[in-house]
Amino acid sequence: MAKLLITRPEPDNRHTAKLLAAQNIQSELLPLLSFTVLDVQLPDIAGFAALAVTSANTIRALEAFDKIPSLSHLPLFAVGEKTAEAALAAGFTSVSTAGNSVESLAELIAGANPSGPLFYPAARNRSGNLAALLEVNNIEVTTIPLYAMEARMNLSSGETAMLKDSSLAGILFYSARTAQTFVELAGTCGLDIIRQTPALCLSPNAAKPLIRAGFEVIHIADAPNEQAMMALALSFTRSKRK
User: Fold this and answer.
1) Angle 84-85-86 (CA atoms, 0-180°, nearest 5)?
2) Which of 185, 130, 150 is nearest to 57 (CA)?
3) d(Cα 6, Cα 153) in Å, to the nearest integer?
4) Helix (H) or strand (E) holding 36
5) Is the C-alpha dihedral spanning 240, 27, 159, 216 positive or negative?
6) CA 190/CA 184 separation, integer angstroms
7) What's the CATH class of domain 40-149?
8) CB 96 within 8 A of CB 108
């Protein structure tokens, strides 16, 4: 049976694998980024009026810093349902959900017009500039990188063999950084043939490194969320079974 390769980090890759299994789709895991909490000094939270969060990984980082109890009373603005669900599960009580982009988050925050500065705990590598987007609304943003998603530097011999396996029908990509990491690792291992394997991408942005690398078949989900990715995976695998 054809298999799909999941390149997203732990623990999200296991969640995706379970969703695929529920649709009778086999998968292999190849996490290309790993979550690391940074050694940083957090600011005094007393002066902040609200919190902005763009990833469920931020909630994980705040838990690692043991800061949820002191922050949970603040209104929290989240990118996407998944991030909002993680915030609610962690104990935040006032959570507003934007779409799946920093631009959508900025619109939500600007419309809410918080009464004071915004605390934005974030990743070290970020797409978009929330502070710049909110500057036009005179909303002050303090951005503190709390965690990093560290890219893999190499592949094991077993992982390289897996990528050469003819039963690998497609590869799932959830971010541009993951896609770029995959392209670099495949190139280092001499896996140019992998460009013939279809790529299933969360968004046009996630597909950009693959387009530049010359991947021959790229499918993009109808929306940048897990539900749309599962619909794409199901449609793709069904077409392979015909």
Assistant:
1) 90
2) 150
3) 17
4) strand 33-37
5) positive
6) 10
7) alpha beta
8) yes
SS3 category, 157: helix
- Structural domain boundaries in the chain: 3-32+152-241, 40-149
Q: CA-to-CA distance for 131 and 105, rounded, in angstroms?
A: 11
CATH number, domain 3-32+152-241: 3.40.50.10090
Look up the pTM and report it.
0.85
Q: How many residues does the chain have?
A: 242
Dihedral angle sign, alpha carbons of residues 31, 33, 34, 35: negative
What is the DSSP secondary structure assignment for residue 79, as one 8-state letter? E
Q: Which residues make beta-bridge pairs with 147?
A: 37, 123
Per-residue model confidence as pLDDT tens for the chain (242 residues): 679 999 999 989 999 999 999 999 999 999 999 999 999 988 888 889 999 999 999 999 999 999 999 999 999 999 999 899 999 999 999 999 999 889 999 999 999 999 999 999 999 988 789 999 999 999 999 999 999 999 999 999 899 988 887 789 999 999 999 999 999 999 888 778 889 999 999 999 999 999 999 999 999 999 988 999 999 999 999 887 76
DSSP lists the bridge partners of residue 122 as 145
Burial-class residue 44 by CB neighbours within 10 Å (0-12, 13-18, 19+). exposed
